[in-house]
Amino acid sequence: MNDTTKPLANPAHEGEWQAQERAVLAERTHAAADADDARSREYRLIARALSEAPADTLPEDFAASVAQRALADQRAAVSDVESFTSPFERRLLQLLVAVFGVAIGAVVVLLGGETLQSIGSSILAMSAYAKNPWVLALAACLALSAGGQLWRPRER
């Protein structure tokens, strides 16, 4: 028998491995199990179960039933989304977006001078990096990648 397996680093794991291998060999050779300890009997039972073909086979219409269940799950998910977007919920969502828009507008009006000034100084600081051609190339690549995502067909 050609055994090219490398010994395990942990001696406890090596002992378990060897016990499993002895049990598999004993099961293959149909050796008597009288002298086996409890661990060897368990490993022999596992080796016997693994050597036999599974008792249950898949039904003949298994693929069709799985496809049918997947289609039913997909339809249920679509109906869940449709039920979530009732006219009331859509109006409520539009109202919330409008309220948040007004709130953002109020913050810009109240804190506009300081906020716009800090945004302007940040843009000026970033413009110093824009003189490097590699930064411009990176920005162009990122913009093309993001733009490409907009025109990609969406899966339904």
What are the segments in which pLDDT stays under 50 over at least 5 consecutive residues?
none
The strand count comes to 0
Report the β-strand fraction as a percent range: under 5%
Mean pLDDT: 80
Helical content band: over 70%
Radius of gyration: 34 Å
- Major sheet details: none
Broad structural category: mainly alpha
The DSSP helix count reads 5
The global form is: elongated
Helix and strand run: HHHHH
Distance between the termini: 56 Å
Supply the key terms.
elongated; 0% strand; mainly alpha; 156 residues
Task: Outline the secondary-structure elements.
Layout: H1 11-28, H2 38-51, H3 62-84, H4 87-127, H5 133-151
Overview of the structural elements:
The chain is mainly alpha-helical and 156 residues long. The chain is elongated and about 90 Å long. Helix content is 74%, strand content 0%. The mean pLDDT is 80. The protein has a domain of 41 residues. Helix 1 packs across helix 2. The protein starts with 10 loop residues before the first helix and ends in a 5-residue tail after the last helix. The protein contains five helices and no strands.
Brief characterization of the structure:
This protein has 156 residues and is mainly alpha-helical.
